[in-house]
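S., here's the first fold you wanted:
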Amino acid sequence: MAETRKAGRYIVPVAVAGVAAATIGLVPALAASGDPDLPEITAQQLIEKIAASDTQTLSGTFRISTDLGLPLEGLASGLTSGLGGGAGGSGTADPSQKLTELISGSHTLRVAADGPERQKLTLLDGSDEYSLIHNGDDVWAYDSKSKEVFHEKAPADAGPKDAPKAELPGTPKQLADEVLKAAGDTTSITVDGTAKVAGRDAYQLVIKPKQAGSTVESVKIAVDAANGTPLKFTLASVEGGKPVVDAGFTKVDFSKPAASDFTFKAPEGAKVTEGAAEKAAEEATGEKDGPFGGQLPEGLEGVLGGFGPGAGAGKGDVNVIGEGWTAIAKIDTGAPAPKTDEAPKEIQGLLGSFGDKVTGKFGSGTVFKTKIVNALLTDDGKVYVGAVTKDALVNAANAGK
């Protein structure tokens, strides 16, 4: 959807996907005490089982917890409102805004799926609910707290490729696919015992970087022993503590959900926003939602634009240093970094709370850190970012001089 693509310009994804490559270990699974006693299986066989899994129908509940190690509680919700939510935005029911809440804290979700054309996700927040329903050519979203509805429908003359798509974000299956899709020789993958997840027997697939300098300690995927569906996904940082991402089913049923689960009618009196109408208005007026009115500040546009499909011309180009888990993206913004002491006091406090001043052969700069993704912004406007340690970023910047 246009709104999803629009939000994607400003949101740095939580998942460190695509940097993982895999050397497949052949360690058989051994049942730990108290865990299911399942037949032995190798990592190669278990990955093949995941790839062959064709689960089309399911319903259940899963919980996702995210801990990026950011110093400010509620930072994600602040970003969400700053990215076009609230007044002047497209409404709190817009999925591109609402689902950014999943990048912070713990959330419980109900899910249902009946093939590629029908899915439903409900985000539970106390007595309030937010539902996202995909049924054929329609995508509906409803926020019970604000009584707002968002609707996106494919044009009458659109082909299947133009129909709106709605995936279930953050599910163990989606996360596992992202990590496993780029296999290579920088990662060790083994099977480490069995477990019970949502009442199902599962194998434990463990993925670890072979390279030093990565912030990723391990990725663990609990795989349903019967049908190969990932039931739980855990991403751990070398810093220890809570997992960076911990997403797993607490209940799951693989039978076909009722057709009524995917029907939706806007409640009486609810405000309905049509996504297609918004897009047409934007194209007619040239106006865009977002914290900068569709325009990014000088320098920042080069940084974020360097990650998009238009990268590759002039300033903002991305050069990749290294490979696998320790790959670092280098971007030259073409503009000096903004001076922290010239920013508002609130911004100075924010930057100072998760930024470390560093110096080296490259000059000086600031490393902005989370438990997984770290970024070095040099004073002369170069950016080094990756799922690597602070020292790895400094070393890359020194080597670039």
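And the second, which I think is the more interesting of the pair:
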Amino acid sequence: MDATPLTDSLTRAPGFVALYRRESPMLLTFCARRVLDAETALDLVAETFAQAFRSRGSFKGSTEEEARAWLLTIARRQIARYLDRGRLDRRLVERVGFQVPAMAPDEIADVERRAGLSALRGALGAELAKLSGDQREALRLRVVEELSYAQVARSLGITEATARARVSRGLRALSRALEPHHHVLVNGGEDR
């Protein structure tokens, strides 16, 4: 890579810190809008940057926009992994040596305001009420209780395939309902 401010941010520690400072507010809002929790979003941003640092040699872009798109792609994968597992995986963050900063209550409130979490939570509640009781219970067991699909199936007295189908249908319905709220965020967390 040529020595440019962008490649410096991917190859040298001070540049990577600058990249983090520049892009983390946008990523924090992006993640918060998808997981509806500011503190989980902060952890996901740390995981995103840990993964970006680890795989920085694979970045092939040359512009700030490409770097932002690359970070958003990594963030989407981290969010999907979190939603699939129902928990965070902090091993990479620890291996890379990233410190997840703590947020004060006023900082959490600010992230929630910028991400519009109150409206998102309202839309989510309304959509949850529309789901069948079977789907809601399967989602509760899988997402809130963090049970495996086999455990969900046993709890509900259904097959694992049926448990997966109920959770999948429920998540798709929730995703469709929340989609209008999920704009790609740029410029420090503001919608375009």
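Why I say that: The chain has two domains: 5-115, 117-180. Residues 184-192 have pLDDT under 50 and may be disordered.

Talk tomorrow,
H.
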